[in-house]
Design a protein that fits this description.
Helix content is 44%, strand content 12%. The chain is an alpha+beta fold. The chain binds 2-acetamido-2-deoxy-1-O-phosphono-alpha-D-glucopyranose and magnesium ion.
């Protein structure tokens, strides 16, 4: 996962003139991300796309262009960070080690918060992600590539989990028995997902698919949300993905890496703020069925993330970056506890 400094330097010179400062950005589990300032050209966010995750990175660029064009041609739409052309004239550059680099303009005087620091900030983030989907509601979602096939397809994630169980080393399997049985007990969520995808009352929409606070830029002076970033997983999806991932990451008292089991819980103020922000942003765009089942969103996404961490643990940690041996298992337990808390919290809603 280490990125050679010289290659970063080289990539930086492809997207601007005379880099003066390069600094690593964010804590994403997938890409290598840098902020580059130049002597004679605008600052930008430079990223090496992880080709294990994104098998066809050109499709990311293609989707980005479709979304960027659609938004810039519609009235009153919020702008997203513009793609930057490299010196070879295209929107990406490949180095000698076949790293796939792309850059977008950097918004000066902005920040992407690691965590939502107040319910108001969570609400603003939720509103911003919803506005993005709402403003793209006139774009046929099927025009976009499905960047990672089956990405938020819960039936597919469940199948990967069962396959991982079949192939797992006995020691890992033993460590994961509790979480495995709890996940199997909740197959009702997969059944609900199958209903969503087969019933036209639930629409296929352009979704962001990675709605963390760190993926919203805020203005450092006004603290208003500017726009969503990290648009690599923008692709067709369903109503629950973005709101659900926000409930998963922002309405939890602890993040997914926390091992403070006893304290992992739902923060009701954040939960409500996210719901309000998202529903306001979507306005009348949601169907009756989507609104009726909105409280299932957090359950679906937390369950999906728990399946994914467990699957990766059983597959010998090949997908998510880890910093210690059982981190993926601990992440699964964290998500399972949160799922249980969410089930209790949403039971009365
Ligand atoms: C990955 O790297 P990051 O944090 O942007 C993952 C998400 C997971 C998340 C869990 C492409 O996102 O789906 O929810 O980790 N992205 C991909 O931390 O797999
Ligand atoms: Mg991401």
């Amino acid at each position: 996962m280490f990125m050679n400094e010289l290659l970063v330097q080289k990539a930086a010179t492809q997207f601007g003139n005379e880099p003066t400062a390069i600094k690593a950005l964010g804590s994403g589990l997938i890409h290598h991300t840098y902020c580059v300032h130049y002597k004679n050209s605008p600052a930008m966010v430079l990223q090496a796309i992880n080709k294990n995750t994104f098998k066809q990175p050109e499709n990311i660029i293609q989707n980005y262009c479709i979304v960027q064009n659609y938004l810039s041609n519609s009235e009153n739409s919020n702008a997203i960070a513009g793609l930057v052309t490299s010196k070879n004239g295209s929107y990406f550059w490949e180095d000698e080690a076949e790293n796939f680099w792309r850059a977008t303009l950097y918004f000066e005087n902005s920040y992407a918060p690691e965590n939502a620091n107040s319910p108001a900030q969570a609400q603003a983030a939720a509103n911003c992600f919803a506005t993005f989907t709402k403003q793209l509601s006139g774009l046929d979602a099927n025009k976009l590539y499905e960047i990672i096939p089956g990405f938020h397809n819960l039936a597919h994630r469940y199948q990967q989990f069962e396959n991982a169980i079949k192939g797992a080393a006995i020691f890992r399997l033993m460590r994961a028995t509790h979480v495995i049985s709890e996940l199997r007990n909740r197959h009702y969520l997969v059944d609900f997902y199958n209903r969503v995808t087969s019933d036209t009352a639930f629409k296929k929409r352009v979704m962001h698919h990675d709605c963390k606070p760190g993926n919203i830029l805020f203005d450092a002076s006004t603290h208003q949300a500017i726009c969503p970033v990290d648009l690599d997983t923008v692709m067709p999806g369903y109503f629950f993905s973005d709101i659900g991932d926000m409930i998963r990451t922002m309405a939890c008292t602890h993040n997914e890496n926390s091992n403070e089991w006893e304290y992992i819980n739902v923060n009701g103020d954040y939960y409500n703020a996210i719901m309000n922000g998202y529903l306001q942003g979507m306005k009348d765009s949601f169907t009756t069925a989507e609104i009726k089942h909105i409280h299932k969103a957090g359950l679906l996404m937390t369950y999906m993330q728990c399946l994914r961490f467990t699957t990766d643990f059983l597959n010998n940690d090949i997908y998510y970056k880890t910093t210690y041996p059982e981190q993926n298992l601990n992440r699964s337990l964290n998500q399972l506890i949160y799922l249980e808390q969410l089930e209790a919290f949403t039971a009365g809603l």
